[in-house]
């Protein structure tokens, strides 16, 4: 169940990051409400996942996948460019998260 909570937390993290851009400095009401709700939901579901997962593993995966998702959806929604250095960074984040998980055991 911890991995399901972590997956939901990652989705909230991506919505939070993308929503922050849409708030225009928290001057737009509904994007601001969505962003704050996503932030709270992400922290809450992450805390549920961390009941079982090591904090180093859970937090790293949460932030790593959240970062990757934010860049990918930022490209789709806001037309931001995905460059080769970004792709290399994705690979490094994924490799680091997998290595961290392997080092801590399943």
Could you list some keywords that capture this structure?
about 80% helix, mainly alpha, about 110 residues
Detailed description of the structure:
- Belongs to the drug/metabolite transporter (DMT) superfamily. Small multidrug resistance (SMR) (TC 2.A.7.1) family.
- This is DMT family transporter.
- The chain is built from four helices and no strands.
- The protein is mainly α and 106 residues long.
- It has one domain.
- The two termini are 14 Å apart.
- The model has no long low-confidence stretch (mean pLDDT 93).
Architecture blueprint of SSEs:
Blueprint: H1 2-22, H2 29-49, H3 55-78, H4 84-104
Helix pairs in contact: 1-2, 1-3, 3-4
Q: Which series of helices and strands comes N to C?
A: HHHH
Radius of gyration: 15 Å
The chain-level structural class is: mainly alpha
Shape: flat
**Largest beta-sheet characterization:** none
Determine the mean pLDDT.
Answer: 93
Beta fraction: under 5%
Number of continuous helical runs: 4
Distance between the termini: 14 Å
Number of strands: 0
DSSP helix fraction: over 70%
Low-confidence runs: none
Would you summarize the structure shown here?
The protein is mostly helical.
């Amino acid at each position: 169940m911890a991995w399901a909570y972590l997956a939901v937390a990652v989705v909230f993290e991506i919505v939070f990051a993308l929503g922050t851009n849409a708030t225009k400095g928290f001057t737009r009401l509904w994007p601001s409400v969505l962003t704050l709700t996503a932030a709270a939901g992400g922290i809450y579901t992450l805390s549920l996942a961390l009941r079982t997962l090591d904090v180093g593993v859970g937090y790293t995966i949460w932030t790593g996948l959240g970062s990757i998702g934010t860049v990918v959806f930022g490209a789709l929604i806001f037309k931001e460019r995905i460059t080769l250095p970004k792709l290399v960074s994705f690979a490094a984040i994924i490799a680091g998260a997998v290595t961290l998980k392997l080092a801590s055991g399943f």
